[in-house]
Design a protein that fits this description.
The protein has eight helices and two strands; from the N terminus they run H-H-H-H-E-H-H-H-E-H. It is mainly α and about 250 residues long. The chain has a single domain, classed as Ferritin, core subunit, four-helix bundle (Ferritin, Up-down Bundle). It has a two-stranded antiparallel sheet. The radius of gyration is 19 Å and the shape is globular. The protein starts with a helix and ends in a 7-residue tail after the last helix. About 35% of the residues are buried.
């Protein structure tokens, strides 16, 4: 199979997955009113409970960060630099020679996740949050591979901690389909970093607010104000649950 044929088939699969995600999300709207988009709270108008749109915008914040990371890595380093990177020493030619191709594949996944979340949020009557400015501290292919492992592991913990706070059943299923793909990314990147691909029988979920605040401090240098329907990224973080269970 030629590279062009392969990429066309993979793109078609991505579109099919995205259509399924959107179809499931649209089905969740049938027979019910849309949950209100968060507004400005006052002393006489306390903040609304965390909504599905809040959780989806939180997921979009993380997916935008990951998508920006892979674009930056692929813009900075080419296939030859990946093949010659010392971080792959001892891993064999198969893993070394396919690392660049797999980073491209992961990048396409993250771009699809971003566009899908944007479309779903709009279909729910919400306003998607924009991209931010990021600093990943990438010095070479080795640091890029190590940072990718950190980001993807964080993403899995984030989805595990957030899915339970979604109200619509279709969104639970759709969110889980992204989480499982992120977990596959983790297994691959753990292997590249000489870690166990599947270290335990269960993953540890982390509360959305904790992830949001940690990512904001570690990687995001600035964000637009307002941040979509929120006054700032910090305001979105403050709206998120600070616990794993409902």
């Amino acid at each position: 199979m030629s590279e062009g044929t392969y990429l066309n088939e993979e793109y078609s699969r991505s579109l099919t997955s995205r259509r399924k995600f959107l179809a499931g999300s649209a089905a969740a709207l049938a027979g019910g009113a849309l949950m209100a988009v968060p507004g400005v709270a006052s002393a006489h108008n306390p903040p609304d409970p965390t909504s599905d749109i809040d959780i989806l915008n939180y997921a979009l914040t993380l997916e935008r960060l990951e998508a920006a990371f892979y674009r930056r890595v692929l813009d900075k380093f080419g296939e030859r630099e990946f093949e010659n990177a010392s971080i792959f020493d001892g891993l064999g030619s198969y893993l070394r020679n396919r690392a660049y191709e797999n980073f491209q594949r992961i990048s396409r996944h993250e771009n699809t996740h971003v566009q899908t979340l944007v479309d779903v949020i709009k279909s729910l009557g919400g306003q998607p949050v924009p991209a931010s400015n990021y600093d990943f501290g990438i010095k070479g292919v080795g640091s890029a591979v190590r940072t990718a492992k950190l980001l993807e592991n964080t993403g899995v913990k984030a989805y595990d901690g957030a899915i339970v706070h979604l109200e619509r059943a279709a969104l639970l299923t759709a969110g889980a389909t992204i989480a499982t793909v992120e977990a596959r990314h983790v297994s691959y990147l753990n292997l590249l970093n000489r870690s166990v691909p599947f270290p335990s029988a269960f993953d540890d979920p982390v509360a959305p607010r904790r992830i949001c605040e940690t990512v904001r401090e570690a990687f995001i240098t600035s964000s637009p104000r307002p941040y979509g329907p929120y006054s700032s990224l910090a305001a979105l973080c403050d709206r998120l649950p600070n616990r794993v269970t409902p």
